[in-house]
Each structure stands twice: as structure tokens, then as C-alpha cells.
Amino acid sequence: MKLFSLFLVAVLLLQVFTEALSVSHTTTPQTHQVDGRSKPPKINCSYACSRRCSKASRKNVCTRTCKACCARCNCVPPGTYGNKELCPCYARLKTRGNKPKCP
Predict the structure, then answer these.
(1) CB of 103 within 8 A of CB of 51?
(2) In a domain, 15, yes or no
(3) Dihedral of the CA atoms 65, 68, 72, 74 (nearest 10)?
(4) Is residue 36 part of a domain?
(5) pLDDT (tens digit, 9 = 90+) per residue, 23-74?
(6) What is the pTM of this model?
């Protein structure tokens, strides 16, 4: 009888752990509710822009401009150059001279 109750407890604990793991893997990322619409959480602009501007000849200028674009769009394209189609807001921003603002 003692062995059976020990086996039953072990099975129940195993079931609890497997359910906890499956719930943690199936949850979606948390979003913020603004005006009834869900928005993705803010990204770390400092990290994303330092990665984006790592090969720039003028790193400080690149990083400052990138952070302004990131704050507005909440997006920075991957890589150190190009890929702007993955972040349309970032690609649409222009300077007063109608040149691309974001590096």
C-alpha cells in the first residue's frame, strides 16, 4: 500500500510539471493595450542601434539618428546595412532634404 501511494504521488507530480512546461511554451508574448489595440512591447533601442551602427564610420551620429528612428517606430532592421523592408516605418522616415533619415 505504501509503495502504491508513493507511485501515485510521483505520477501526479510528473503530470503537474509537464503541464507547467507546456503552458510556459505555448504562451504568446505579452502585449500592451492602447486604445483597444494591442501593441508589442518596447524594444531596447540602445542595444539594437549599437548593433546596427557597429560598422559605421561615424558611430555616434549613426547611433543618435537610429535611436530617434527606433523611438518613433519601435523597430530597427536586422543587420548593419539594408533590410529596411522589414521595418517599413523606419524606411519611410525622411530628412528635410527628402533623404532617408534612418541608417
Answers:
(1) no
(2) no
(3) 80
(4) no
(5) 544 444 445 555 566 667 889 999 999 999 999 999 999 999 999 999 999 9
(6) 0.61
pLDDT in tens, 19-33: 766 654 444 444 555
| Residue at grid coordinates 505504501 | 2
Question: Is 87 within a domain?
Answer: yes
- Give me the domain span that covers residue 57: 45-92
Q: What is the 3-state secondary structure (H, E, C) of 9-73?
A: HHHHHHHHHHHHHHHHHHCCCCCEEECCEEECCCCCHHHHHHHHCCCCCCHHHHHHHHHHHHHHH
Tally of residues, the chain? 103
The single residue listed with the C-alpha cell 527606433 is 70
What domain count does the chain have? 1
Coil, strand, or helix at residue 99? Answer: coil
The answer to whether residue 80 sits within a structural domain is yes
d(CA 32, CA 39): 5
